[in-house]
User: What shape does this take?
Amino acid sequence: MSGPAGVHPAAPAPGGTDTEVTRSTCMSSSAQIGVTGLAVMGRNLARNFARNGYTVAVHNRTAARTHALVEEFGHEGSFVAAETAKEFVAALERPRRLVVMVKAGEPTDAVIEEFAPLLEPGDMIIDGGNAHFADTRRRERALREQGIHFVGMGVSGGEEGALLGPSIMPGGPQESYDSLGPMLEKISAKAKDGSPCVTHVGPDGAGHFVKMVHNGIEYADMQLIGEAYQLLRDVAGYSPAQIADIFRTWNTGRLDSYLIEITAEVLSHVDAATGKPFVDVVVDQAEQKGTGRWTVQIALDLGVPVSGIAEAVFARSLSGHAALREASQGLAGPKPTPMSEAEASAFADRVEQALYASKIVSYTQGFHEIAAGSQEYGWDIDLGAVSAIWRGGCIIRAAFLDRIRAAYDTRGDLPSLLSAETFAREIAEAQDDWREVLIAATRQGVPTPGFAAALAYYDALRAERLPAALTQGQRDYFGAHTYRRVDRDGSFHTLWGGDRSEAPA
Ligand code: NBP
Assistant: This one.
């Protein structure tokens, strides 16, 4: 129970059990899992494993973090503090399970380079960072040659989720999930029906791909909520506190979700320094770390229209262009038309419909991207299982995901969420209000790129004819790119510069 300087002996754990904090040199090969990278996420994930009864080896490039963890939280469970990579690896039972929670990108490669030579065939490196799935595929391939299993593991839920139960999206070989899965099931969030929010998503990069799209959907959800807020404020004339109450009411219905819940909290918060609504003292320039952008970039590569997610990424980007916005102040816009109390209340109900319908579209687009990625890379991802593991722990957790799961349970090969009877009916009921909201937004000059993109996607999908026929004609005119006809097989070209006769291409 004693440790070297900096690693304190255990204080009694809650419930009366003794804590075991030791250094690996004192107790080798005893840890069932190890976590390296002990910033907010790694530290909380390590604590989560320990609180669930696992002995956890902990390590960080800067040893001070390791010591701080065991000093502060050593009483929560059994930790093995390691100062060096060798100590860390020696502390792990075989096959070794080594979770990497460092900054995604070069740091992950640096950690792999440091640890891989110390590992043996059958050991596992589990990357819980927000890696690009292409990097995960590359790393998995390279480590496979050494017999090391590489698990790219998406983790969602932020700092609190990592501690109390995240939604976990592991990829990699099935063999490693057989060994790792039960541990992940224990530390993961549980959905309302008690099932763990983790599943083996698929081989190599599948887990990180699904995490990426999760984040893309998160961007879209947040953008749509932001647009609803601005409409309620600028068109209906509600105060942030009143809007918080509206969101609280919405959170008791079909929009019940973590993001709606925290939106009400943020909107009702008052800045202590000024007494103003908190939302009015925050600089209105949204930041991003990249997973939303990746979702859109990859969607472009795969040819999947994720217009709602793209608008969310662009909206953050536009918000950050301070100079451009400054230079645009004073550009003409419509005069605001105030609403009566009754009109505002009716408008709020319409906004709820528009938000819900647009949300269905964002998820439709996100699941389309996952299906396309799965097909492109041969992952065989179960979309119903993905919706099931997003029901708890993650940022987009929502009652709504139960319905998506039910839709995929009813029909595994659903071509699109919009073709599920339940969502088609709800959108049919919402569409008049959805359109009215967009009319009001346009008339009052409130930007609603997310709502508008979602409606345009919906209308484009249901349109019998699209102007793409005209596009094909133009392409054939200027570039002889050819076109197909509705009444005959084959490709054709019209001699635009000649007698305009048509010839098979
Ligand atoms: P950060 O992303 O801030 O990374 C800090 C950690 O990376 C520290 O432990 C640091 O060690 C380590 N590190 C760096 Br930086 N360069 C290193 C190198 N070359 N070699 C070894 N270690 C290195 O931590 P975080 O916010 O806890 O996130 C960890 C991972 O989880 C990231 O990939 C992140 O994208 C992902 N994630 C984060 C969240 C979230 O809500 N924050 C949610 C889901 C996933 P040091 O202490 O020695 O500097």
About this structure: The longest helix spans residues 341-377.
